[in-house]
Write a structure and sequence with these properties.
The protein has a single domain, classed as Alpha/Beta hydrolase fold, catalytic domain (Rossmann fold), CATH 3.40.50.1820. Helices cover 35% and strands 29% of the residues. It has seven helices and nine strands; from the N terminus they run E-E-E-E-H-E-H-E-H-E-H-H-E-H-E-H. A nine-stranded mixed β-sheet has the order 1-2-3-5-4-6-7-8-9, with helices on both faces. Helix 6 links the parallel strand 8 and strand 9. 41% of the residues are buried. The N terminus is likely disordered. Pfam families: Abhydrolase_11 (PF20408). This is Testis expressed 30.
């Protein structure tokens, strides 16, 4: 690994964390990944895994911002790139990253949450379902950023796309972060899916937010700070109530 010490200034002062670029074994290939680690690793036992949507890669600004915010809050964040658009392939890649994190010897990772943006959140949900079927405590939470319930204007596909969500167990905490103007998440249909789910669900609607979680008239930084704060507050709540 190649550690890079990063300093990021925010309204609270200067945060420090290390970001290591790694190659995660994936069959005969490797996945590019970044491991973002709190400056002090004492007591660090929680990791969040993140991946991107159909376009872009692990350097998508929203993922980088969230990774740095998580590490500044004492949580390991591993984000990775998987260019494949096939969901089954994406889930296999995600599983490889999960295996990699479980094998890390530098930390004692006891709690892992899966997350992703758009297509990445579908892959995270599918893997969460798969892992919980194998081991009840394999995954402690799921974070879905702009879950793509359907393609724009094609709401008929929402049942198929939400299948993994609807069968998640009742012990699974799930956070949805979506924009109120997301053209891939009809709110009425989404509310119907949530009502059918057994999991412990929290939803944060970003007012005026698009599928890309951008808001007209607001700076990108202000939106990112708001979204990151919501996610960290949610994780902290569940760490205190469920992870002990």
């Amino acid at each position: 690994m190649h550690p890079v010490n990063i300093q990021r200034r925010n309204s609270l002062g200067m945060d420090k964390f290390d970001e290591d670029r790694v190659k995660v074994p994936f069959g005969t290939k490797h996945l590019d990944a970044a491991v973002c680690v709190p400056a002090s690793v004492n007591g660090v036992d929680t990791a969040v895994l993140l991946t991107h949507g159909a376009g872009g890669d692990m350097n998508f600004r929203h993922l980088v911002s969230l990774a740095h915010a998580l590490a500044s809050s004492g949580i390991i964040c591993v984000r990775f790139t998987c260019k494949g658009l096939n969901l089954v392939y994406r889930v296999k890649a995600y599983r490889a990253v999960w295996d990699y994190v479980k094998s890390l010897e530098r930390f004692t990772v006891k709690h892992i949450l899966l997350g992703g943006r758009s297509l990445g959140s579908r892959a995270a949900a599918a893997l969460a379902r798969q892992l919980r079927a194998e081991t009840e405590d394999a995954v402690q939470g799921l974070i879905c950023l702009s879950f793509p319930l359907h393609p724009p204007g094609q709401t008929h596909s929402h049942q198929q796309r939400s299948e993994d969500l609807r069968v998640l167990p009742e012990q699974m905490p799930v956070l949805f972060v979506s924009g109120t103007e997301d053209n891939m998440c009809d709110r009425v249909l989404f509310d119907g899916v949530v009502n059918e789910m057994k999991a412990q669900i929290d939803v944060f609607w970003l007012k005026g937010g698009s599928h890309g979680l951008t808001v007209k008239g607001r700076s990108e930084d202000s939106v990112l700070d708001e979204v990151n704060a919501q996610i960290i507050t949610w994780i902290t709540k569940h760490r205190l109530s469920n992870f002990m």
